[in-house]
Amino acid sequence: MQAMLLAAGFGTRLRPYTLIRPKPLFPVLNVPLLHILLDKLILAGCGKIVVNCHHLAYQIKAAVADRPEVILQYEPEILGTGGSLRKALPLFDNGPVLVMNGDIYHDLNVMDLLAHHQSHDFPVTMAMHDYPRFNSVHVREEKVIAFADNHLKPGGGILAFTGIHILQRHIIERIPEQGFFHIIDLYKQLAGEGQIGSMRIDDCFWQDIGTPEDYLDLHRALLCKGKSNDECRYWHISTKACIEENVELKEWGAVGPEAKISSGSSLARCVVWEGAHVDSGQELTDQIVCPEIQAVTK
User: Fold this and answer.
1) CATH number for the domain running over 2-207
2) Angle between helix 80-88 and 183-192 (nearest 10)
């Protein structure tokens, strides 16, 4: 299997944190999300993974330097989800290409999606789920028939696109060769032609990290596993972190390697990045703490 992992975006809704680190390198339980996604693809048998980059590209380059399966595609200008795929076309063979956004955490078995794709006649298969916040795609009997800003047809349901999809080479060839292009613009046309299939993944865990609140909520979901904040009492702490005496860690959170939590401080529902310091006496709630940005209590 071959894949493309999209990691070039600016992550504007996550500023100021994305001014110092690209969104795919945000740590999830102290592991960069990009590494989690790459490991998932490699475990599924991907022998070739194209990772595109633009914003803070040098950090993405360093993060994949020791991964022989990865082909880095630097883009001097943002090309969009479709333009990036078109640029990568010469790197792919004639088989299907799995595409995944670099800002989502999920537990989908991508081999199940590939098997579904190969057992149906659609040149595109989109992984879909019922996620009210993002529901915007009209699906009927495993076929995508319209998007929210198209004329919707009766007899189907509205679902959300997960950012995970598989498409055949000849579909990528329909994308313009130069410039920015959003893959959904092509998919709107293909839906009208009846060429897009879907696979429901409602039983899978899925979470994007589009905002600071989403990023923190991902940690809550992973650490609490269905428990309420009042019931959840778990902190994921690196063995290389320094937690001084008289520190109060409430509810849930994570502390990365080389981080220091000074005496007399109090944290609740926080994610402390590698190398960050929390000063003595600070009281932080619902915060992302990183070395380059001073945490400000909301």
Assistant:
1) 3.90.550.10
2) 90
